[in-house]
Amino acid sequence: MKKAIVLGATGGTGSAIVRELINRGIPTIAFGRSSEKLLKLKESYGNPEYLTLQTGDVFQVEDVYKAASEADVIFQCAAVPYNKMEEQQLPLGEAVLKAANRLGAKVVFVDGIYPYGHAKTQYVNEDHPKNPHTKKGKIKLEFEKLIFHSRWNQSKHLIVRLPDYYGPTANKSSYLGMTMEAIAEGKTAMFIGNMTIPREYVYLPDAADMIVELASLDEAYGQNWNIPGSGVISGRELVQLAQKARGISKPVIPLRKASLTFIGMFDPIIREIVEMLYLTEEPVVLDGSKYERLVGPIPATPYEKGIEDTIQALVERNKQTTIDQHT
Question: Please, which residues bridge with residue 5 across strands?
Fold first, then answer.
């Protein structure tokens, strides 16, 4: 990999991948809509000279094409809002794929586990049947078909699939990010879904490490890849670890179907979460053996350390935001 571009660079996964790339000394372009957010991202990483910034619209082929003209690998991390997925997911994919095909570039699509639908096995590998029963799962399956369509014959693609995630760069748009931010702020927090059933979460720095490793290997392209976490853990245990790291134990309120349905009357994004709640009752746990066969051991930061590092980073970020507001 000579040079990379990260689309959606200021989001949770995007900014984690940017950090991993610059830590490896790989010249990187951070692409996003907001110049202000991009500047803050670069400042947070110490203004490395080999990190350049580019604003643009990921839905515009020419914007992506021009920004990625010097890159040989494109990391597609830009996300669409839940309530816009039906109308925006495929157009986003089309724009990125058209630009990449013209450039002859490689593309790494960062995506989730929705296309798997209900888990048929204890551990879900990449060959697990894809029979999504939710609207978003069906859209994501169409997205996969678009990515691997034969008409993109000048570029190469791979998909990495992450479970729910957490980490210093996660934000309120992620399920667990919302909970972690509230705990870091010392406030009453909300937790989406069942807090007692163990589920899988991946620590974003670990995920970024695995994603960049796969992106560096020619043989990884043309395939789906699971990015597993550090085993399973209940929401209650996660919250206890976060509260211990913060030193404050405010209430954490689980939001189940009835609560989310009510809130969804006023919030279109929350409304769209309801159909995905099955994942909190019937967790999908990813099998990472395919990654291990190609790359080697899976980096798996223990939850206790990952949560502690996340809370400390969020607390520091909040302090800096307060300082900035008073200067």
Answer: 29, 74
d(CA 27, CA 187): 39
pLDDT in tens, 150-203: 999 999 999 999 999 999 988 766 788 889 999 999 999 999 999 999 999 999
> How far apart are the C-alpha atoms of 314 and 304, rounded to whole Å?
16
Q: Find the DSSP H helices in the chain.
A: 12-23, 35-44, 61-67, 85-103, 135-147, 175-184, 204-215, 235-246, 257-263, 268-273, 278-281, 289-294, 303-325
pLDDT in tens, 125-141: 999 999 999 999 999 99
Question: Domain of 140: which CATH number?
Answer: 3.40.50.720
Q: Could you list the residue range(s) of the whole structural domain that residue 142 is in?
A: 4-169+201-229+284-301
As for how many domains the chain has, the answer is: 1
Residue whose tokens read 């954490």? 252
Strand order in the sheet with 199-203: 164-166, 199-203, 232-233
